[in-house]
Automatic annotation (TrEMBL):
Protein family membership: Belongs to the RecN family.
UniProt keyword terms in alphabetical order: ATP-binding, Coiled coil, DNA damage, DNA repair, Nucleotide-binding
Name of one Pfam family that matches: SMC_N
SUPFAM superfamilies the UniProt entry points to: P-loop containing nucleoside triphosphate hydrolases (SSF52540)
Positions in coiled-coil regions: 123-212, 335-362
GO molecular function: ATP binding
Domain of life: Bacteria
Protein name: DNA repair protein RecN
Keyword Thylakoid: no
Biological process, per Gene Ontology: DNA recombination; DNA repair; SOS response
Role, per record: May be involved in recombinational repair of damaged DNA.
């Protein structure tokens, strides 16, 4: 509930605080006293756009603050979803600077207007005169019937399954699109893959082939060089190895005369052994190198195949070709997997659709069961609030599965017993809609926890007994919900748990709006003035007293 509203520097309000009761709060006052200004200020903390022209004092910022006592699962979920600190009270604040800059806060944490609006939908239901948008919405009409049917858990389970059903349908559509797209290219991709599989490429093969080709192409030069090296090392008139052996022996004779000579001699011996090994390796390589024309032709053919594949796929290495082969294999495998995935999705969708249809049928049955009692109760309430000829009818049309079942629900209205029912948005006037909304909300309030209900002159156009009946409905509604009502009707004002009077007062050279909570005697006087004028008669005072005491 909204237990305090603080307004600073707004319109013709300098500083104002109003503490509301948790039941029926009635606000009265002369036309133009500032009742609409209160709602204008309140609308700012409900997320409305700010206008800097409303500042009372252009040198100071405007501050509107609403304090709520509320603890519902929906509000708790909002705080968790937006990572805000949840407390026992919720304080909404809106600040407007003289430059027109607006800031919003939830429990002193800055938020954007979208977040503020989302939260206030859970806290306040503001219904102004001719504000019929909510009643005209099909979602609201469905929610009314669902609230009366009392099948929220079943409906929530249906919604969860339908969302899963929708996701599976989306996945199926994407899989079919992927398969169709892949099938258009699969024949060509299979040809490319077969070509690469036939080539039977090996990792690093091209490099190995080119190295062997280089060796065979220069085999004569290689063989001549190896022969010469081996000859000079071992078979020349003075072979290098023989000369090295002799030099090592000469050094050995000096070992006794210099301490460093043995080390040099040992190193030369090691070099001799290494050169012997090199000579043997050169001889072995020389024996292996033979020009093979047939092998050369094989190499050229194989290299040509690989070069052609590289050019075709616009790559530079065997490794890249192997990567392309893997991708093609994976792509073709995915096409096969998509077929299996599509079959699995179709099976899941079919089973889930059967469950949804069964649940939707049960929900429809419960909704239909509520139609007659709902029509009867609303029509009785309409007569009670001065619309004896008005009738409401609920149309439930079954169709395809959707988020909240298989039903399209629409409220139809006939204001004159003509049996010519039409959609509410087309046939009901603003005053009729206001009272119809009150009747409907008073029924729904018994089934669901509504937020704070605010009605702005919902009783316009009625008087006498009809106004009294509106007051009775408001009083009943306020037994379980906080209701704030701006009215000109004394019959409604008499039902208030807390009666606030809005008035203007000159302070200095400026007119300012004030609000005060009336005492019992002040209430009687205010209601008497509403009945007979500025100077109430004794009869009006007695009538007002009766209204307050009832």
């Amino acid at each position: 509930m909204l237990y305090r509203l603080v307004i600073q520097n707004y319109a013709i309000i300098d500083n104002l605080e109003v503490d509301f009761s948790g039941n029926l709060n009635v606000i009265t006052g002369e036309t133009g006293a500032g009742k609409s200004i209160l709602l204008g200020a309140l609308s700012l903390i409900l997320g409305e756009r700010a206008d800097p022209s409303v500042l009372f004092d252009k040198t100071r910022k405007c501050v509107i603050e609403g304090m709520f006592k509320v603890k519902t699962p929906e509000v708790q979920a909002f705080f968790e979803a937006h990572e805000l600190d949840a407390e026992d009270q919720v304080i909404l604040r809106r600040e407007i600077s003289s430059a027109g800059k607006s800031r919003a806060f939830i429990n002193d944490t800055p938020v954007n207007l979208s977040q503020l609006s989302q939260l206030t939908l859970l806290l306040v239901d503001l219904h102004q005169q001719f504000d019929t948008l909510e009643l005209e919405k099909s979602d609201f009409q469905r929610e009314v019937i669902d609230a009366l049917a009392g099948h929220q858990e079943q409906l929530q389970e249906y919604v969860r399954k339908f969302q899963q059903y929708a996701r599976l349908q989306k996945d199926l559509k994407e899989c079919i699109q992927q398969r169709d797209s892949a099938n258009k290219e699969s024949d060509y991709n299979k040809f490319l893959l077969d070509e690469l599989l036939e080539a039977d490429l090996q990792e690093g093969e091209m490099e190995s082939l080119e190295a062997e080709q280089q060796m065979l192409s220069h085999s004569e030069e290689i063989k001549a060089t190896l022969t010469r090296v081996h000859f000079q090392l071992k078979e020349d008139e003075q072979p290098v190895l023989q000369q090295l052996r002799q030099l090592q022996a000469s050094l050995q004779t000096l070992s006794e005369f210099h301490k460093d000579v043995p080390g040099l001699s040992a190193r030369m011996q090691s070099t001799y052994v290494e050169l012997q090994d090199i000579a043997a390796e050169v001889d072995r390589l020389n024996d292996q190198v033979q020009y093979d024309g047939e092998r050369m032709e094989q190499l050229n053919d194989r290299i040509a195949v690989i070069y052609r594949l590289q050019k075709k796929h616009n790559v530079q290495s065997t490794a890249e070709l192997l990567q392309i082969k893997t991708q093609l294999e994976q792509g073709l495998e995915n096409v096969l997997n998509l077929d299996g995935r599509i079959l699995e999705l179709e099976k899941q969708i079919s089973l889930l659709k059967e469950e949804l249809e069964k649940t939707a049928a049960a929900i429809t049955k419960k909704r239909i069961a509520q139609v007659a009692p709902f029509e009867q109760k609303v029509n009785a309430l309409l007569a009670q609030v001065g619309m004896p000829n008005a009738r409401i009818r609920v149309s439930i049309q079954q169709g395809a599965l959707q988020l909240y079942g298989q039903d399209t629900i629409e409220f139809l209205f006939d204001a004159n017993k003509s049996n010519n029912f039409g959609p509410i948005r087309k046939v009901a006037s603003g005053g009729e809609l206001s009272r119809l909304m009150l009747c409907i909300k008073s029924l729904v309030a018994r089934s669901v926890a509504l937020p704070t209900l605010i009605f702005d002159e919902i009783d316009t156009g009625i008087s006498g007994e009809a106004a009294r009946q509106v007051g009775i409905i408001m009083k009943e509604l306020a037994r379980g919900h906080q209701v704030i009502c701006i009215t000109h009707q004394p019959q409604l004002a008499g039902k208030a748990d807390a009666h606030y009077f809005v008035y203007k007062h000159m302070e200095g050279d400026k007119v300012q709006t004030h609000v005060r909570l009336l005492s019992q005697d002040e209430r009687i006087t205010a209601i008497a003035k509403m009945l007979s004028g500025e100077k109430p008669t004794p009869a009006a005072l007695e009538n007002a007293r009766e209204m307050v005491m009832q």
